[in-house]
Amino acid sequence: MNVPGADGIDLTVLADVLKTMFGKEAAPVSHRAAPLRGGTLGDVRLITGFVKTSCCGTVPYELVCKTQGKWERPGDPGSWRREYDLYNSDLESFLTGALRRPECYRSEIGDDAVRLWMEYAGGVSGAGLAVEMLEKAATELGRLQGRIYSANGRVRGIGCASDAGYMRRDLEQWYNRTYSYDFLYDGSYPLPEHVKRLIKKYMWDNGRTIEYNILRLDECGVPAHLKKMITDLDGNTDEAFKAFQELPVVFCHRDFWTENIIFADGKITLIDWDTAGWGFLGEDIASLIADETAGVKISEYFRRFVPAYLEGVSGYMGIPRDFGRHIKNMIVIKFGYRVAQAYMFAESEDARDESISILQGIYDLWGPK
Length: 369
Description:
By secondary structure, the chain is of the alpha+beta class. The protein has 13 helices and twelve strands. Strand 2 and strand 3 (42-53) form a beta hairpin.
């Protein structure tokens, strides 16, 4: 993989990418790199500037350079290079036209990182997405999953994908403590002071996570009925995942929420595929319903997105009985502890109230108790 310049951009590679975008006679006139999004292991830059072309003179351009460092996601060690592998697979042939991903102009891999030079996908995203746009995204994702399923999952080059055990491993991270209390308490790990005080007070020796133990304290503050919704699952994990075996295994995006969905010109562009892989039918829709969703919207999203999703998949497979129950269980599995943790770690009353509202929205999916 080429060595970048001072601003992280290799100008020789940039010139080659622009030739791919505009034709072999294109030549960069200028460029500017600005952070776009990404975490500590992912560096995403928006590259803008002007390019001289043979057909149109000097015109502006914009593209994305995404660098992903090598790291070991627990239970999913190949995730750091997954988008590189997917761009070199046959996944493109299964996309529906109405659902697409950004075009990749160049992909590079080294021992410790991958770098992708991609189209900048502009449009409406995040909180700007109307519910009708999200319904369309649900339908088109279902159609994509159905198309791959009908081909018996035979997509060349996606052997790197995560497996159907991903959701269970994701849940179990909330059970088994991996850090010592000394490490958590001494400042090596960023914890609010009120959480550190609880650790110092109790110093639990059951091997469970702090979230697991705090949820069971009177001091926790999460209402009893919402605690019970989460803790009831702890004793029925095997039963829940046994029931999921009724569901077809499909190719999931696994980060299917509003910030990764971009709507423009009647089409959906889906970004950030690094956790994609095989999973149970409905995992992605559970995420779309509840990931960073205001509590008051969760029931409406469930009513609208589940039928929209089934519209997409139903042309390719039979729909398992009681499918909605499976989705509700997935939502608790994927977001119960996660939202409870947000409550526990919150520094303000408003943030705590927001977490309780989300948990109540999930609870209300089950109807009158």
